[in-house]
C-alpha cells in the first residue's frame, strides 16, 4: 500500500502572523489562528493545508501524507516499524490540532520530518478567498507539492519508494552554476493520484529543510494577479515567470515569510497512472524561471 496524496505541511517560523498576512493578502488563502496561536492557511474544504507554528528557526517541520483508510495506515505503520524506522504515534491532542483521526510521525534518512494520517476531520466548510481566488487545484491530488533537501539522495529515494510507496516521475540533472559547483540532481515522485509530483528530493543541503512548496490555481489569470500582488508588495522573487519541462507548470516563485519559497502555478501535467513511465531530464524549463537564489 502507498500514500495517496500530500495532505498538508507544517512550517515553523519566528512570526506566524506574517504567514497569516502573506496567505490572506498575497496568496489568496483563507487564514485562521487557533487557540495555540498557530496559523492555518485554507485553500479548499479542508480546515487547512498549511499549518504554521512558532519556532526559533524558519523551516519545514513536517510533510503530512494522507492515506485513504485505516488498513492503508496500519500497513504503512507496520512497514516502517518492521524496517526499524523510528516511529512516534501522535497523541489525541495533536491529532485534534491537525484535524485528523490518527497519525504517526517519523523522519526520512536525510533528516526531514514527515507524518502519515488517515481521515481528515472538520472538513466541508467552503473556501472563500478575500481576493476572489476561485479555487486551488486539490481534491484527490492533495495540497500541491513540496521539495526537500536530501544530500544522501539515493538512500532517501529508496526510503520513500519502499516505505511510503511513492513512485518516480522524473530524474532531472542540470549544471550546478559556477565552475566547480556540483550538478543539481532532483528526483520527482508521484503518489497514488494524477499530480505529476507531490514530493521532490534535492541533492544539496538546505538549512530550512525546504527548497519550496507549490500551490496550483485553476486559471492563468490568477497566477498573473498574484504576481502583481507580489510585485506591488515589494516581495522578492526566487524565480521569474516561466514554464517547467517535466510537469508543464506555468509559475513563478516568491519568497514567503522567513525566506521560505512558494511556487504559485497553473496547468500542471496530470499523469495516467496506468501508462506513465518515468522520464530522465537535463533541462528544467521551456522558458523563463530566471532564478535568484539567496
Short précis:
The chain is of the alpha+beta class and 294 residues long. It contains 5 helices and 18 strands. The chain has helices at 16-27, 70-82, 92-98, 153-164, 220-232; strands at residues 5-13, 30-33, 39-42, 50-54, 59-67, 88-89, 100-107, 113-120, 145-149, 167-174, 184-190, 199-202, 212-217, 237-244, 250-255, 261-266, 279-281, 285-288.
What does this entry look like structurally?
The chain has helices at residues 16-27, 70-82, 92-98, 153-164, 220-232, and strands at residues 5-13, 30-33, 39-42, 50-54, 59-67, 88-89, 100-107, 113-120, 145-149, 167-174, 184-190, 199-202, 212-217, 237-244, 250-255, 261-266, 279-281, 285-288. It folds into two domains: 5-120, Roll (2,3-Dihydroxybiphenyl 1,2-Dioxygenase, domain 1); 139-288, 2,3-Dihydroxybiphenyl 1,2-Dioxygenase, domain 1. A hairpin with a 5-residue loop joins strand 15 (250-255) and strand 16 (261-266). It has five helices and 18 strands. With 294 residues, it is α+β, with helices and mostly antiparallel strands. Strands 17-10-11-12-9-13-16-15-14-18 form a ten-stranded mixed sheet, covered by helices on one side. The protein has an eight-stranded mixed sheet with strand order 2-3-4-1-5-8-7-6.
Amino acid at each position: 500500500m502507498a500514500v495517496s496524496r500530500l495532505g498538508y505541511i507544517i512550517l515553523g517560523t519566528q512570526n506566524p502572523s506574517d504567514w497569516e498576512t502573506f496567505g490572506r493578502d498575497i496568496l489568496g488563502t483563507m487564514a485562521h489562528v487557533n487557540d495555540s496561536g498557530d496559523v492555518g492557511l485554507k485553500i479548499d474544504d479542508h480546515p487547512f493545508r498549511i499549518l504554521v507554528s512558532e519556532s526559533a528557526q524558519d523551516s519545514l517541520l513536517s510533510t503530512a501524507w494522507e492515506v485513504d483508510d485505516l488498513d492503508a495506515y496500519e500497513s504503512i505503520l507496520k512497514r516502517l516499524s518492521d524496517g526499524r524506522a523510528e516511529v512516534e504515534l501522535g497523541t489525541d491532542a495533536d491529532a485534534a490540532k491537525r484535524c485528523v483521526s490518527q497519525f504517526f510521525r517519523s523522519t526520512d534518512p536525510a533528516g526531514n520530518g514527515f507524518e502519515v494520517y488517515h481521515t481528515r476531520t472538520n472538513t466541508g466548510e467552503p473556501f472563500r478567498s478575500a481576493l476572489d481566488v476561485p479555487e486551488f487545484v486539490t481534491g484527490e491530488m492533495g495540497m500541491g507539492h513540496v521539495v526537500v533537501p536530501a544530500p544522501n539522495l539515493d538512500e532517501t529515494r529508496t526510503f520513500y519508494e519502499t516505505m511510503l510507496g511513492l513512485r518516480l516521475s522524473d530524474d532531472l540533472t542540470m549544471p550546478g552554476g559556477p565552475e566547480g559547483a556540483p550538478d543539481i540532481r532532483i528526483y520527482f515522485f508521484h503518489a497514488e493520484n494524477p499530480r505529476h509530483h507531490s514530493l521532490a528530493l534535492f541533492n544539496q543541503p538546505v538549512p530550512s529543510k525546504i527548497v519550496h512548496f507549490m500551490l496550483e490555481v485553476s486559471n492563468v489569470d490568477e497566477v498573473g494577479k498574484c504576481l502583481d500582488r507580489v510585485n506591488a508588495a515589494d516581495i522578492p522573487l526566487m524565480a521569474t515567470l516561466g514554464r517547467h519541462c517535466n510537469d508543464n507548470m506555468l509559475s513563478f516563485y516568491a519568497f514567503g515569510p522567513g525566506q521560505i519559497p512558494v511556487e504559485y502555478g497553473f496547468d500542471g501535467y496530470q499523469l495516467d497512472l496506468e501508462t506513465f513511465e518515468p522520464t530522465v531530464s537535463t533541462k528544467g524549463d521551456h522558458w523563463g524561471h530566471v532564478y535568484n537564489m539567496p
